[in-house]
Amino acid sequence: MSHPAFQDIGACVFDAYGTLFDVHSAARRASDALGDKAAGVSAVWRDKQLQYTWLRSLMGSHADFWQVTGEALDFALAAHGIEDQALRGRLMELYLSLEAYPDVVPALSRLRAAGRQTAILSNGSPAMLDAAVESAGLNAILDASLSIEEVGIYKPDSRVYQLAVDRLGVEAARICFVSTNCWDAHGAAHFGFTVAWMNRFGQQDERLPGAPAAIMQGLDALPGLLGIG
């Protein structure tokens, strides 16, 4: 069902990791080596990856997402008593070809067919995003893939969200921003985007500034929010 807040949307902008791409698919694909530690390693890897982006931003000590991802993996492996450089290398390589969620291609295809711009706005480095988009076969249904490296600081800094406004030529309120990460959804709403928080995993809402205009469980609901049949 269409939603009043989404009736004048000019572009749909998506977070990448955890929203379009399954960040836990790397560890699952290495479960032969990780065994029963796969889920635990993946959870800590993701938590530390995000924490390090925020902490580096606050410290004024930026490093790109590839480095941060590697440092987070080092922490996760050490926390689980794993010392295996070959496995580390394999996991990092697998991170370049994360699986896209099954609702991604159908939803983005419908948006593009209806004349909406589509773009990624991500913490990922350009090389990481290029690899992930190529691996998932999304090139033909994305107008742009925007990396925070253009501004040198991580979400939820307002300069990151402004990047989408500047590059797409669409004012903030006419950008529908979609993220599975609740903190990112709040950050984008606080900036001025019209936000659909995609709560894939039944998470509790954060107590942060900015309110998403809508909450959905999967990308298949997005075209309907925009009144696209």
Describe the structure.
The chain has two domains: 4-22 and 98-225, Rossmann fold; 25-95, Putative phosphatase, domain 2 (DNA polymerase, domain 1), CATH 1.10.150.240. It has 229 residues and is α/β, with parallel strands linked by helices. 45% of the residues lie in helices and 12% in strands. Helix 7 (126-136) links the parallel strand 2 and strand 3. It has helices at 25-29, 31-34, 38-59, 65-79, 85-95, 104-113, 126-136, 158-168, 182-191, 222-225, and strands at 11-14, 117-122, 144-147, 175-179, 194-198, 214-216. It is globular, with a radius of gyration of 17 Å. The mean pLDDT is 97. It has a six-stranded parallel β-sheet. The chain is built from ten helices and six strands.
Features:
229 residues; alpha/beta; Rossmann fold; DNA polymerase, domain 1; six-stranded parallel sheet; 10 helices; 6 strands; 45% helix
Coarse shape: globular
Q: How can the largest sheet be summarized?
A: 6 strands, parallel
Give unreliable regions as ranges: none
Regarding CATH, which class of the largest domain?
Alpha Beta
CATH topology of the largest domain: Rossmann fold
Radius of gyration: 17 Å
Secondary-structure element order, as H and E? EHHHHHHEHEHEHEEH
Distance between the termini: 9 Å
How helix-rich are the residues, as a percent range?
40-55%
CATH architect. name of the largest domain: 3-Layer(aba) Sandwich
- Please identify the structural class as seen in this structure: alpha/beta
CATH superfamily placement of the largest domain: HAD superfamily/HAD-like
Q: How many individual domains?
A: 2
Residue fraction in strands: 5-15%
